[in-house]
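@channel sequence for tomorrow's demo:
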Amino acid sequence: MKQHIHIKNITDIATNNPIRLYHNNMIGIAEVDSNKNILHLQPAAYINANTTLFVTKGSIIVNINYKKYEVKAGNALLLSPAHLVAAESFSNDFKASILFVGRDYMDEMDPIDIISVRTRYGVKLYSQPVIKLSDEENSLMAERLSQLKDIVDNIEHYYYKEMVLSSLIILFLDLSNIIEKNSESVSEALPRREYVTSMFMQLLIKNYRTQHSVTFYSSALNITPHYLTLVVKQVTGQSVCDFINEMLFSRARALLEQNKMSVQEIATYLHFSDQSAFGKFFKRLSGVSPKEFRKR
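structure tokens (generated this afternoon):
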């Protein structure tokens, strides 16, 4: 039987988990331990956000893109929406800080090239998403995260959004600097199939809202639609169309939950031909219409 792709929004993960949400649920911050297994996703899922886990004590075993990684105290786990993830086990003394930043919020950082390159976790970190931090680097990142928490709590600040964005930029600039210094120890090469899959996922994350066809992505990668479909299927067990549909469905759920746009506006925003086409698409994946989903 064909498996369904699971793509989780930050709000999906926050359900029944102690995650503090900010800025229309585009930022999530939490302190986690072995009893608060936020990444214990069953089945494994793609998270529609950039996720950074700083392990401060103990260790966690995480399955990422069908490979197991042990993330120990002093390590950082760097996940993009292109990583399929599920935590398998934790040590009894496991403790960590976790930061989720939604894709749309990351897009606001695009003018700064180093952030755009490094926090989107390109090919280098696709296959090796765990980096070791020195004591000094861990202290710096703990300080930056603490500063971010203070700023996001200060909702009365007249320039609240600008303060939050600036704090995130500083945090990710420091993290990008650490990644740059660690880049020599990260493998440059990926097997061809994994490389193509990684590049497809990066293109999808950037273009899924406006580009719904396999041909667009294969053309952008200078390969045939058949080859792209074959490679992605071999690496992930899912089809290109499955990924496109689930990205659209994931974003549609988030927009419906926010209740700020009408169903017609969401259909237009996601580049469906009309509201009817969007409604049929959404009901096929969820079993209910957009309006019924919103009423829940």
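heads up for whoever presents: The CA atoms of residues 119 and 181 lie 14 Å apart.
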